[in-house]
Amino acid sequence: MSEKYIPLSVPNLKGRELEYVTHAIETEWVSTAGPYINEFENKVMEYTGARGAVSCQNGTSGLHVALKVLEVTSEDEVIVPTLTFIAAVNPVKYVGAEPIFMDCDDTLNIDADKLRTFCETECDFINDKLINKLSKKHIKALIVVHVFGNMADMEKIMSIADDYNLKVIEDATEAMGTYYIAERYKDKHAGTIGDIGVYSFNGNKIMTTGGGGMIVSNDKQILKKAKHLTTQAKSDDIYYTHDEIGYNYRMTNLQAALGLAQLEQLEGFIESKKANYERYKKEIENIQGLKILNFNKHTRPNYWFYALYIDEHYKLNRDQLITYLSSKGIQSRPIWGLISDQIPYRSNQIFEIEKAHRYLEHVINIPCSSNLSNEDVNYVVECLRHPK
C-alpha cells in the first residue's frame, strides 16, 4: 500500500467556518432556532434566484417533504431515474407511492426522450391525469436528479411535464451552483426550474454543513407548506397545537453557521474544481481506453464529481482499476448500483433500462475535492497512464 492518500471528495473548511460556529456556540443558539438559519436560507435564496428557501436536515428529508407538499400518496406513482443514489428514490416509498424506473442518457441523467416515449406508449392521459396502463395508477410526479452536478435536459423534461400534468421535483443535491447559461432557462439554477428543488450539504458535497439540506421553490404556498411540515406542523407557537403530522426536519443553527461560511466560498470551490476537471480531461484524453465524460454544454456546472469512462482498450476493467488505484493511495468508486436492481425495488416497473447498465460497468469517480492540488492531479494521471 502507498503511504500517499488522496481521498475522493472531502470538505474544504478554510473560510469563516470556525468564526461563525464559535459565535453560535458562544451565543448558545445551537439547536433548530437561531439567526444563522434564517440568514443561510436567505443567502441560498439570493444565490439560486429562488423565491424562497427552507432548511432541512438533509437532502433525503427535503425530498420527503417535497413529495408530501405535492400531495403524492399511496394511490400514486412517481417516475424516477435508476442511475442515482438510492436516497433519491426511498422517499417515494416513505409516502407509500411506487417508483417507475427510467434509463439514463449519455450525461448520466434521466433520458428525456425515453421519458416521453413512456408517457406516449405506456400511459393514457385521461381527465388531465397520466394513467399507467399497467398498474392503472395515476403518475403524479417526476423526480429529476442532476447527476454529479450535471444538469439534466430540463427543456425537454419540463415540456413533457407540461404536456402530461406531472409535478417536477428536482433532486439538485449534487448540483448546488449549477445553472443554465443559454437557451430557454438561461441563468436558472438547478433546483429552481421544476415545482420544487432540494439541495444537500452532506460532507462530500461541494459545500457542506456536515449534514443538512435546503428546499427551494418559486411557489410561496409550497414554501409555506414545507416550512410548516419541517417544524412539526405547529400551528400555534405558544400553545403547541399541531394541525397535521409534521417532522423534526429543521436544520440546526450550528449547521447553518457552517453553511453560511461555505456559501461565501462556493464560487471559489467551483473555479478550483473546474480547473482540476480541465487538467484531468486534457491529460486523460491521451490515455488509450480512458476519457472524462462531458458536462452539459448549455450549463455552467459545479463540476462536483468527475466521471471516468473505461472502455475495452484500457489495460484494466472497472474493478481492477479501483483496486489498483487503492493500492496507490487513491480513493475512487464505481457509480451506485442501479436502484431498480436493489432488493426493495426489484418488483417495480422499469422502462427500457439499457445505457444505465453500460455506464455502471464502465464508469468510476476519481478524486475531485476542491482543495485537490496540482501535484495530486498529476499523481492520479500518472497512475492512470502506467497501471501495473
Our count of helices gives: 11
State the low-pLDDT regions, or none: none
Largest sheet entry: 10 strands, mixed
SS-based class: alpha/beta
Q: What quaternary form is this?
A: single chain
| Beta-strand residue fraction | 15-25%
Using only C-alpha atoms, the radius of gyration works out to 21 Å
Order of helices and strands: HHEHEHEHEEEHEEEEHEEHEEEHEEHEH
Any descriptors?
388 residues, alpha/beta, Aspartate Aminotransferase, domain 2, 10-stranded mixed β-sheet
Structural overview:
- The chain is an alpha/beta fold and about 400 residues long.
- It folds into 2 domains: about 15-260, Type I PLP-dependent aspartate aminotransferase-like (Major domain) (Aspartate Aminotransferase, domain 2), CATH 3.40.640; about 265-385, Alpha-Beta Complex (Aspartate Aminotransferase, domain 1), CATH 3.90.1150.
- The chain has 11 helices and 18 strands.
- The chain has helices spanning about 15-25, 35-50, 60-70, 90-95, 110-120, 155-165, 220-230, 255-285, 320-325, 355-360, 375-385; strands at about 50-55, 75-80, 100, 125, 130, 140-145, 165-170, 180, 195-200, 215, 235, 240, 290, 300, 305-310, 335, 350, 365.
- The strands form 4 sheets. Strands 1, 2, 3, 4, 5, 6, 7, 9, 10 and 17 form a 10-stranded mixed sheet that branches. Strands 13-15-18-16 form a 4-stranded antiparallel sheet. Strands 8-14 form a two-stranded antiparallel ribbon.
- Helix 1 (about 15-25) packs antiparallel against helix 8 (about 255-285), helix 5 (about 110-120) packs parallel to helix 6 and helix 8 packs across helix 11.
- It is globular and about 65 Å long.
- It starts with 16 loop residues before the first helix and ends with a helix.
- The model has no long low-confidence stretch (mean pLDDT about 95).
